Structure formats: structure tokens, C-alpha cells
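G., the chain you wanted modeled:
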Amino acid sequence: MFVSYTDVIVHIRKPTMSIREMDEFLAGFTPEERKKLVLHSYPELSRTWGLERLHYPASLRPSSLQADGHTGYRISTSVHSWAEFNSLSSSYQDAFISPVFSSISKKGYRPNEDLRRTEKRENFSTNLIALGGIATHNIELLKQNVEDVALCGSVWLSDDPFAQFKTCYNLWHNQL
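Predicted structure as C-alpha cells:
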């Protein structure tokens, strides 16, 4: 069975990378591949390289987004509480809420149990993306309550990252 991963978006979070290094890194992708990338720093490179998405970590999220400079981009951010998520403007199409489960890659980073209480959700104009500790054994628990999931440690720390990704992807998309 052939599975197309056209809906997969890759977030690039490299806080120690200089703007020059990030620029060189982006040069290694084709224009078609760059359409699937999101930078967590250097938004000016998103414009330079024709990326279609912008991400604002919680610590850098503007209090309001001005239309100019953001037109034509899909905007995402990170949140860590329902109050934060529910207060987002509709300018944010996607928001990562974390940590939903115990982090796999950040040892000792415990879940915020309250984040699984999705009845607290009041914002339905922003897609809710669960992040933190998501793996094959718990991914299906989220299907009814969030629009999407983000995978980090379960893929990075796997003995076979691509096989792990494919299994999670297929579980999420009911292809197993």
C-alpha cells in the first residue's frame, strides 16, 4: 500500500543556529520541500526562501499580528494552558498545546493533565495540535479532541525513526 505524506509539515527548531547557518541549511531543500517547512526563528528567512508558514514560540508571540508582513502565511504558535489557547486571535491558524503526556525527549518534563480536559476549549477558530509524549501507545486517545498531533521524541529517539513515524502516521489516519 502506497501512503502519501503530503500533509506532513516539518518544524525546524534550531535555537543555536545562526541566521547564516540557517540560510545555508535551507539552501539544501528544493522549493517544493520548503513549502512543508516552518522555522521557529528568523522569520525573514521564511520570506527569502518562499516558506508558506510562520511560527511564533510562546515567548516570542506578538500581542497582535499586523496584517502586513503576515499576509499569505499560515501562522502557528505554542501554548501551555487553556487560557492561553482560548485567548488566541483567529490570526493563528494552528496552536501546539503541550505537554499533553510525559515528554519522551525531555526527561522529567511532566504532562499538564489539565490539557487533556478538552471541554475547557473555547477557541474553535484555531486548530489544536497536541504535543508532548505522543507515541504509538497513546496517539489514538487524542483523535476525538484535537485536529492534529506533533511527533518529536517518539521519532527522534526511536531505533528506526522512519518506521516509528509511519506507524504513528498510519494510526492517526486510520490506515492500520
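The radius of gyration is 16 Å.

Shout if anything looks off.
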